């Protein structure tokens, strides 16, 4: 098992990839690598939880394997499936040729379709495994994950037990759509990721959009922070801040005024009633 | 922070973990203590913030624990001469000693106590002060303000009316309420889940099982196997009006919420009066065999009513979690002085997302009741059902009344 050494300064490695990581996140990610425990990242949508996993994979120089959870996701779709059509053809061909078909034939590796979890535990180099939005999957899938995260092995009835060659670095994310079980929480390190402070967010905007005008960057971050104070149905995340700033840059705006606001409001507020609610606040913040 | 010797460090860590468990209700044990020590190996012990970040990642498991952990860490590992630590918010009642046994549920005595709320509340507080730091002062525990509510209010004076303090909901009707909750859970039919499970009949062919069966017949899929969608399990969101006007009905409905929480897997309970409080963690901590007692709920119990504002706040807080599997039960008499427009907006939002939106009113159980309250009038267009909740009989009939609504 060969493992690339983790960068001595994870924060700088993240920074080099345009991700401005806070102290707590850097420490938690260091522990993921050092302790081999999964990390559960919780927080509002759009604070960079998924992005943290992608950036970690980049910083460690390893693969990112992503499992997107959804309601109805089952172990089959997450682990492996057999290529039934090819198996049936194989059976047919064997019958025509008068050959006997053994189980080992029928369940050979050529018919096995690996899904993200199986792929993750069969890598030579530990990958970063992102189990995204685990709160969307149902209880049964969560219970299945427990076994995998504890033992790092899975049982394929036809093949036997497969044990991880290299233990992946696992990040789970949750938007709290459903309360996760205590059992899952206990197996994970935990970090609540909140919206960045205004200064941090300004730094993120500068890091991701290097050519942006200073006035515009400051105005956009200030406006987004004012918006998050309002009782919005869908408060803007960091992704929206960046989209908004990028949209204004694309329109060659150097500062935020009423016209620019009209043209780009959809990049930051995605609900009509939120736009109506926020308009007085935004008009006040925009330059006359 | 000075760097301690390893043996000293592991003893300190075990003590810190025990402190979190005993004083703050954290579910941490030797496993977490070991992981915490391993985490300390991976960080710079000369950097207190880094140590705190690492231990927080290991020893907390949910957001609510984070501020409690930070305060506990600062207190436990405080440098000599540092400023005094902040007062800790209570997360859960202490777990190292069992709660005092509930008073014997003799109805006559309970009634007598109710007539002298000042006295019984003061005793309640005295009992609790040793275990928590955020109890109301006795000054708050005086007699409630004189009642001046509309004549329609037949509500009796709540034991906690206008006083704050601990919430007691004694009663020996738990078996009856459990039956009512069971009927309700069974009655709600929300359709089918998206997960596919092996079933005798279903919309999708189960290729895996069909193929396994076909291997025995030389590849001919003679016996087809199917995948079907099981019934969706409902999730309940109960919003309980704990305002003064609700009187004893609030205690009954609180017990019903508790019974439902014991019967269904996913139940969220909120109480509102002047403010809104999530009760789910408190109900989880309560023992199923005991009379229900909750700590001070602050402005969520025994004050005035702000239905609209609180429901709007709830609709926003729970927005991500209210979906078509959710049955929202609002338990309120609808006596509100707030703006009906706000209430209407909140209910429109909830109705658009929830599977079923039901309002239960204790007043609706009275004969000759007309839904003329402003809040109820504003709510009716958005509701799937408006039903009485005057006693255990009404709650037992709830399942039957809701059948076919979903």
Automatic annotation (TrEMBL), chain A:
<dbReference type="InterPro" id="IPR027417">
    <property type="entry name" value="P-loop_NTPase"/>
</dbReference>
<dbReference type="GO" id="GO:0016887">
    <property type="term" value="F:ATP hydrolysis activity"/>
</dbReference>
<feature type="domain" description="AAA+ ATPase">
    <location>
        <begin position="35"/>
        <end position="194"/>
    </location>
</feature>
<dbReference type="InterPro" id="IPR003593">
    <property type="entry name" value="AAA+_ATPase"/>
</dbReference>
<dbReference type="Pfam" id="PF07728">
    <property type="entry name" value="AAA_5"/>
</dbReference>
<dbReference type="InterPro" id="IPR050764">
    <property type="entry name" value="CbbQ/NirQ/NorQ/GpvN"/>
</dbReference>
<dbReference type="InterPro" id="IPR011704">
    <property type="entry name" value="ATPase_dyneun-rel_AAA"/>
</dbReference>
<dbReference type="GO" id="GO:0005524">
    <property type="term" value="F:ATP binding"/>
</dbReference>
<protein>
    <submittedName>
        <fullName>MoxR family ATPase</fullName>
    </submittedName>
</protein>
TrEMBL record, chain B:
<protein>
    <submittedName>
        <fullName>VWA domain-containing protein</fullName>
    </submittedName>
</protein>
<feature type="compositionally biased region" description="Pro residues">
    <location>
        <begin position="81"/>
        <end position="105"/>
    </location>
</feature>
<feature type="region of interest" description="Disordered">
    <location>
        <begin position="80"/>
        <end position="151"/>
    </location>
</feature>
<dbReference type="InterPro" id="IPR008912">
    <property type="entry name" value="Uncharacterised_CoxE"/>
</dbReference>
<dbReference type="Pfam" id="PF05762">
    <property type="entry name" value="VWA_CoxE"/>
</dbReference>
<dbReference type="InterPro" id="IPR011195">
    <property type="entry name" value="UCP010256"/>
</dbReference>
<dbReference type="InterPro" id="IPR036465">
    <property type="entry name" value="vWFA_dom_sf"/>
</dbReference>
């Amino acid at each position: 098992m060969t493992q690339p050494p983790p960068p001595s300064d994870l924060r700088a490695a993240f920074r080099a990839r345009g991700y401005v990581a806070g102290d707590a996140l850097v420490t938690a990610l260091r522990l993921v690598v050092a302790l081999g425990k999964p990390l559960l990242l919780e927080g509002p949508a759009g604070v960079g939880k998924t992005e943290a996993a992608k950036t970690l994979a980049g910083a460690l120089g390893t693969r990112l394997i992503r499992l997107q959870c959804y309601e109805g996701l089952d172990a089959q779709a997450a682990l492996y499936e057999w290529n039934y059509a090819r198996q049936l053809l194989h059976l047919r061909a064997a019958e025509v040729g008068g050959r006997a078909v053994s189980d080992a034939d029928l369940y050979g590796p050529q018919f096995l379709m690996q899904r993200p979890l199986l792929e993750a535990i069969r890598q030579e180099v530990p990958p970063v495994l992102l189990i995204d939005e685990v709160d969307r999957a149902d209880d049964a899938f969560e219970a299945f994950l427990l076994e995998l995260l504890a033992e790092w092995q899975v049982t394929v009835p036809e093949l036997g037990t497969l044990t991880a060659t290299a233990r992946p670095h696992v990040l789970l994310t949750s938007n709290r759509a459903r309360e996760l079980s205590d059992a899952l929480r206990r197996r994970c390190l935990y970090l609540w990721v909140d919206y960045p402070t205004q200064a941090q967010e300004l730094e993120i905007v500068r890091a991701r959009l290097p050519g942006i005008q200073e006035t515009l960057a400051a105005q956009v971050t200030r406006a987004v922070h004012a918006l998050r104070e309002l009782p919005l149905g869908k408060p803007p995340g960091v992704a929206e801040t960046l989209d908004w700033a990028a949209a204004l840059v694309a329109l060659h705006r150097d500062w935020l005024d009423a016209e620019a606001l009209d043209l780009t409001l959809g990049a930051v507020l995605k609900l009509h009633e939120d736009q109506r609610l926020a308009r007085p606040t935004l008009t006040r913040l925009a330059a006359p | 922070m000075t760097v301690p010797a390893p043996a000293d460090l592991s003893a300190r860590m075990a003590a810190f973990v025990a402190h979190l468990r005993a004083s703050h209700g954290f579910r941490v044990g030797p496993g977490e203590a070991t992981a915490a020590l391993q985490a300390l190996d991976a960080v710079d012990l000369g950097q207190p913030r880094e140590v705190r970040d690492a231990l927080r990642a290991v020893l907390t498991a949910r957001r609510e624990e984070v501020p409690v952990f930070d305060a506990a860490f600062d207190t436990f590992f405080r440098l000599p001469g540092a400023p005094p630590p902040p007062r800790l918010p209570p997360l859960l009642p202490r777990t190292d000693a069992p709660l005092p046994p509930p008073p014997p549920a003799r109805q006559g005595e309970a009634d007598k106590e109710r007539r002298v709320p000042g006295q019984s509340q003061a005793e309640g507080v005295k009992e609790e002060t040793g275990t928590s730091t955020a109890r109301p002062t006795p000054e708050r525990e005086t007699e409630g303000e004189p009642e001046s509510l509309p004549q329609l209010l037949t509500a009796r004076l709540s034991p906690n009316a206008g006083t704050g303090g601990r919430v007691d909901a004694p009663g020996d009707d738990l078996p009856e309420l459990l039956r009512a909750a069971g009927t309700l859970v069974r009655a709600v039919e929300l359709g089918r889940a998206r997960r596919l499970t092996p079933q005798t009949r279903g919309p999708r062919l189960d290729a895996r099982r069909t193929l396994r069966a076909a291997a025995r017949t030389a590849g001919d899929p003679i016996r087809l196997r199917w995948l079907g969608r099981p019934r969706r399990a409902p999730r309940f969101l109960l919003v309980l009006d704990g305002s003064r006007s609700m009187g004893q009905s609030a205690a009954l409905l609180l017990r019903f919420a508790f019974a439902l929480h014991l019967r269904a897997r996913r139940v969220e309970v909120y109480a509102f009066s002047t403010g809104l409080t999530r009760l789910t963690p408190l109900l989880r901590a309560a023992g199923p065999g005991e009379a229900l007692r909750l700590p001070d709920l602050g402005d969520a119990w025994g004050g005035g009513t702000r239905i609209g504002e609180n429901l709007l706040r709830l609709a926003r807080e729970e927005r991500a979690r209210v979906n078509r599997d959710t049955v929202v039960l609002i338990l309120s008499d609808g006596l509100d002085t707030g703006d009906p427009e706000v209430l209407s907006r909140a209910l429109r939002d909830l109705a658009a997302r929830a599977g079923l939106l039901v309002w239960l009113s204790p007043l609706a159980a009275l004969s000759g009741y007309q839904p003329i309250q402003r809040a109820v009038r504003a709510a009716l267009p958005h509701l799937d059902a408006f039903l009485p909740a005057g006693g255990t009989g009404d709650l037992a009939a709830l399942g039957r009344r809701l059948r076919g609504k979903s």
